[in-house]
Design goal:
By secondary structure, the protein is an alpha/beta fold. It contains 15 helices and 16 strands. The longest helix is centred in the last third of the chain and has 40 residues.
């Protein structure tokens, strides 16, 4: 941008528009709320959203760098970028995202670009509005009001350029952000954190206990009224949201009494989608309208038809892959029976196409029943899980699947043996911790593998002075006190 501005000034001292360079630090500060909303590290368990945000951030960074360093718009810069942001920070909305379209203004006025980015995500533009304008006007006669002389401006530009050279506003801001988090975490022990937050946890827990009792009474009454086996909530810890779901279902049944027939002896789960799960449970999305719930309940037989076909689809895939066991991920989110049936068919067809052209490697054992294969959605991972299961996406080509299995059989067996040993150790430590600390409950996130949980629980038992009485504890990767008083701690606490 230095060269650009020098040319503007030298060629036309009375130019109608003079641009002021914004520094990288100013850009980073202005976009800080935006960074915190879309940073890929916030989407570690959601690969699709993470990848989208990573790619968009690269393009946005290149666009801003070009504006800051050269004062021009890159020809490759798109007019619109896509970012995922969380629907809200509430626990019940975990895994729910909104896709936001962020426009890239085709202007050299960086301030205007920043304002549009923030506005598209409904973030405050107060900081940007207070910044000195990126451009200043002049009349047609060349009478320009300048705060500085041309030489002073050029000197300022040179200083900023030397300070900001090779300094990406994204990278520098995130480096600082992550460094501060790391240092804060290293310096704070579990004991100190509990001392600061236990009062808050107890107050929140007591405040919501009356609501919990009300919800439990309502749940038991509806189980009896509907004749269902159970009613569960699998969408976070917010008990008030559970009560709202129960009230909505109660209202639906009052308007459509015949819908009760489709619920008899079934398990109802308020979850993140509407459909029938692989366990045969009736899943009702907490964000759906009652009409969608009613459509499912009235057409439950069509969903059950897919459920009945699953054993045959799994058997067919197993036969193609030398009797490999077809399993389901031990810590996977619930899935729809109809979608899962489609995934199994795709995988079987892909392998049959491969066998039509080639053969399985000679290094393979004649029987693969000691291995367990899990078929997931099109966007699923290709990996060996901590429990030794072989996780593959439904769209994985046959050749790629065969190559993956060949390279990871030994790893799978090793992890299976490790998990089989550790799960019993974890159960014993879990029971001992509940008894020693007299906790109300002790849970863990799916991301916390048995070896991590064992390390966490062993430290708890051997550490004196931990105050964990009468709380709901959840072992995860961060510190937090939820709205209902649940205490979250990282598994690798100090």
């Amino acid at each position: 941008m230095n060269i650009y501005l020098k040319k503007c000034i030298s060629h036309n001292p009375s130019a109608a528009l003079i641009y002021r360079m914004l520094s990288s630090s100013e850009v980073a500060t202005a976009l800080r709320p935006f960074y915190f909303a879309v940073h890929p590290d916030l989407f570690g368990r959601y690969p699709q959203q993470r990848q989208t945000n990573e790619e968009s951030l690269k393009l946005l960074s290149a666009h801003l760098e070009s504006l800051l360093s050269q004062g021009r718009i890159l020809p490759s810069s798109p007019k619109m970028l896509s970012f995922y942001v969380r629907a809200s920070n509430a626990p019940e909305h975990r895994g729910t995202f909104n896709l936001v379209k962020v426009p890239l203004e085709r202007t050299g006025d960086t301030k205007q670009v920043l304002r549009k980015i923030l506005q598209s995500c409904h973030l405050s533009t107060e900081y940007v509005d207070k910044m000195i304008s990126s451009s200043t006007g002049t009349d047609t006669k060349g009478k320009t009001s300048r705060a500085k002389t041309r030489s002073n401006q050029e000197e300022e530009f040179r200083k900023r350029q030397s300070t900001d050279q090779n300094d990406s506003p994204f990278e520098s801001e995130f480096d600082i952000f992550q460094f501060r988090i790391k240092k804060a975490r290293e310096n704070e022990s579990l004991k100190l954190w509990l001392q600061k937050h236990m009062v808050t946890a107890n107050v929140r827990n007591r405040a919501i206990q009356e609501t919990k009792d009300e919800v439990e009474k309502l749940r038991e009454a509806m189980i009896k009224q509907l004749g269902v086996a159970d009613i569960m909530y699998d969408c976070g810890w917010n008990v008030e949201h559970f009560r709202g779901c129960l009230k909505s279902l109660e209202g639906l049944i009052q308007l459509h009494p015949s819908a009760v027939d489709g619920l008899k002896n079934r398990v109802i789960v308020f979850a993140s989608f509407t459909g029938v799960s692989l366990d045969g449970h009736i899943m009702l999305f907490t964000g759906d309208v009652q009409r969608n719930w009613l459509d499912l309940i009235q057409n439950i037989e069509k969903q059950d038809a897919y459920l009945r076909k699953l054993p045959a689809y799994e058997y067919a895939l197993s036969q193609v892959l030398r009797n490999i066991r077809i399993g389901r991920r031990k810590f996977m989110p619930k899935a729809q029976a109809m979608a899962y049936a489609s995934h199994l068919r795709k995988m079987t067809t892909s392998l049959l196409d491969y066998l039509g052209r080639s053969k399985f490697p000679k290094t393979w054992p004649p029987d693969l029943s000691q291995f367990e294969l899990v078929v997931e959605s099109e966007a699923g991972p290709l990996m060996v899980s901590p429990t030794g299961q072989l996780i593959v996406p439904a769209t994985c080509p046959g050749s790629l699947l065969v190559d993956f299995l060949s390279n990871h059989m030994h790893e799978s067996l090793a992890k299976q043996e490790s998990y089989d040993r550790q799960k019993y150790v974890e159960r014993d430590l879990h029971s001992r911790c509940l008894k020693k600390f007299r906790m109300l409950s002790l849970e863990k996130d799916d991301s916390v593998t048995p070896d991590r949980m064992i390390e966490c629980l062993e430290k708890m038992i051997s550490t004196e002075g931990l105050e964990l009485n009468d709380i709901h504890l959840n072992v995860t990767t961060y510190y937090s006190v939820l709205a209902d008083g649940t205490v979250c701690i990282p598994w690798d606490w100090k």
